[in-house]
Amino acid sequence: MIRIYAAAAVFYILLPIFYTIAFSFNDADKRNIVWRGFTIQAWLNPCEPIGICEALGNSFKVGITATIAATALGTMIAFALGRYNFRGRATTNLLIFLPMATPEVVLGASLLSMFININVGAGLVPVIIAHIMFCISFVVVTVKARVASLDPKLEEAARDLYASDWETFRRVTFPLVAPGIAAAALLAFALSFDDFIITNFNSGTVNTFPEYVWTASLRGVPPQANVIGTLMFVIALVSVFAGQAISKRKQTRR
Amino acid sequence: MAIAHSSSTEKAFAPAKKSTRTAYFLLAPGILWLLVFFAFPLINLAETSTKTPAPTFETGEFVQTFRFANFFDAFAANQEQFFRSFFYALCATLLALAIAYPLAYAIAFRSGPWKNFLLVMVIAPFFTSFLLRTLAWKQILGAEGPVVSTLQFLRILPSDATITATAFSVIMGLTYNFLPFMTLPIYASLDRIDYRLLEASGDLYANGATTFRKVTLPLSMPGVVAGTLLTFIPSSGDYINAQLLGSPDNFMIGNVINSRFFRVVDYPTASSLSFILMATILVLVVIYIRRAGTDELV
Question: Which CATH architecture has domain B7-18+77-292?
């Protein structure tokens, strides 16, 4: 019973993704809403619609910069929270939680009001700043869970074997936390790459890929957008399954 | 994801001896970033909300007059959208819970070798653009799509009926878009349950339903609380689903804030509305967390 339910839920989750993939092969008219026949035309000329690849490039620029910065800053906070006692812990927890409890419109609007008040023009830099800000909390939560699940005895054992603090961190703690950091970085990239609302508030005339899709949806999204969506989906899926296979092999080798 | 462990276990993992200076060094850059680009903008937002148009009446020019009545005016003019936002968000949260809980349960306890594959399927939507998926729903539910034509063929829907541009399609879109945020925390808390506890319950002659009600469900509550928050909060502020899948009759508060900022260039009203939205959500979250009995938030 519950298996059938789960299968139905997975079908529901995948249905629009299948649609997105299928319509990248549509012999589309301007709107790409009705199926008109199979073609690989869009796959052969993915950059044909004006601005689409430029927008994609911007999304990568923002996503990669924001992921690196947010992962670094968030991991440091996660270690501080998971490994040290200090005053101001509750306030720190609150400051991490609040950005996640704030709707994106409010985050976007407040950043825009600040940039207007201090006369900073919208563009790619404000977008990167904003993305780092909202990714930090998600990185902290993900990495902190991993840090908290570590067995402190492992670190004690390293110290008993005369490892210095730095050696303990480099050879014991960090390798054990690394999968958590990798997961956090992936999450940060996914959140940044797909963000529309906060980006749209702060990007001005520059477009990211979601913004391109949004603008295009008013007159009809070209099938090339579906091509890019499909490619991202396939690349992400392959890398996730490859990552799982690698970690499985490592485990069996041990 | 969030709301995982109680504070007591956490302290056990944080040896007190280590120097707090290192802790502050680790915290400083990230916390500073959040203060400058999260807390400070909120102050700017609050400041903008009490401004009034400049005497020159130039578009986008406002002066600070501390007009607190802006909040009341903004709320009074957009009550309908406020209540609709929270109503839609509540419906979407309940629906997502109804879909996600059995799914997470099946993945945690009944999936066998399919576990990893199913988990990847749950996060699969993260890999395709949110907007493309919402546009795909517009196609699927649209007048030329398979759902409407099937229902019309079965005579369930009259031939001129539509599903898009209704409250149903907006709520469906919200449910769909935030489903992974509901499923993952519930799965995480179910997966952590020691299976021996369920066996022990069976040994004490509890039937399946009693075991679920008295053991499984209470132990999975942290995941349910985290999941409902991660679904409710973004849903209540969303405007994409209402814009793409709804009609102006379904517009939510996010749509109003967005158009006040960009189309009408009325920053004070947009800021007041944002502030009311955030304050309401925070109050609801605090009440909810108190009632659910979880104190540690992250």
Answer: Orthogonal Bundle (1.10)
